[in-house]
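Thread: nicotinamide-adenine-dinucleotide complex, take 2
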Amino acid sequence: MRIAMVGTGYVGLVSGACFSDFGHDVVCIDKDDRKIAQLHHGIMPIYEPGLENLVAANMRAGRLTFTTDLAEAVRGADAVFIAVGTPSRRGDGHADLTYVFAAAQEIARAVTGPCVVVTKSTVPVGTGDEVERIVRAANPDAAIKVVSNPEFLREGAAIEDFKRPDRVVVGTEDDDAREVMRAIYRPLSLNQSAPVFFTGRRTSELIKYAANAFLAVKITFINEIADLCEQVGADVQQVARGIGMDKRIGPKFLNAGPGYGGSCFPKDTLALLKTGADCETPLRIVEATVQVNEGRKRAMGRKVVKALGGDVRGRTIAVLGLTFKPNTDDMRDAPSLALIRSLQDAGARVRAYDPEGVEQARGMVEGVDFAEGPYAAVEGADAMVIVTEWDEFRALDLPRIATMLKVPLMVDLRNIYTEDEAAQAGIRLVGIGRKASAMHAFPAELATAAAR
Ligand code: NAD
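Output below.
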């Protein structure tokens, strides 16, 4: 199959590379010429484990190319995927479909033969109808079918997710389009992955939003249970384990933390709420989830201030981890951003380290010192906060850290460490959803130092 991928970002690049690895001929298109120039030189514009090798191998095999010339690339393609961004529209939270509609128009003008246009971007229900209208208006004679095929990959595990997905959802009412999509995903059946799930186009569009909203609800639910644990002396990790053993609930997405972030959940929950409102069908559970999560991000800043005795003016806080999750450089809507702002508002200085996110973070936060590594971030700081559970933070030399911090206090927003481990190193640990035991309470002299 000849595939054109319009949009070579986190989704387009991974999807394009994986499709070419399946044996298809793929050309990835982006209007960002810097990105395309980098790819021509084998430089990845994003950080995603395994991507560089996958791209290089398929470029060498002649199955994967990159261009800025959309018209040339889509001509003769069996399928053209739209994988452009659908950010929140500024001001109202609706999905901004400008890029999708512009891409649809460009594609329609360029294609000649029969072709399937596949929306991989996350788009609200009914967008496929509008894309079809745009395509027909721009090129009434071309036999173009419009299909929905939302993407469920997770950054950080994107290649594995793409090649071994729980499911592939395809929305179309057209038999020919269904056959093209079946052929594109046929290599997955050799992996014994889940089958392609064919459904209607509108249903497919809604599946993506319903899935993301459900996951956001699940995270927010355990986060609120974590708050309750702190009040009643229970341990949220044990609660999560205890409920997760129930197969109806399942163990995944029950890690309490600083609130969800990233390039998908925040914007997709908002967009779903807008769809609900437009259809006079309020989605109150999702509404509450969005509110609770927003509040939580800044509450994490207050948690750090409180742990330091209530006054952080002039104090330096080391922040370890900036990206919304490990193994990505994506900083979009990362909880660290709200946390840092809230610490700065309280008068603290922030020194931060992240293995991959610093380049993007520089453009998103002001007044932050960036360190070269975790220990450089911690050296001489008043306290430290773990925000993202990168592997490199899982085995820190705690006794060394204890000697480097002015106040041996670690706020661990990912519950990587136990109180006992920290206490053995002489560090007071404040986690999520765990009431600090009296045994490990802040020693009086440190409390005084913290309050100074
Ligand atoms: P991204 O911002 O990383 O990439 C989008 C790319 O499209 C950019 O490089 C941009 O330059 C390019 N582009 C925009 N208009 C174009 C045009 N007319 N022609 C050529 N290129 C164009 O976005 P992303 O994170 O890959 O997300 C893409 C879509 O996939 C979104 O709808 C998102 O919600 C959805 N999605 C993302 C993820 C994820 O983890 N990032 C997962 C599942 C679904």
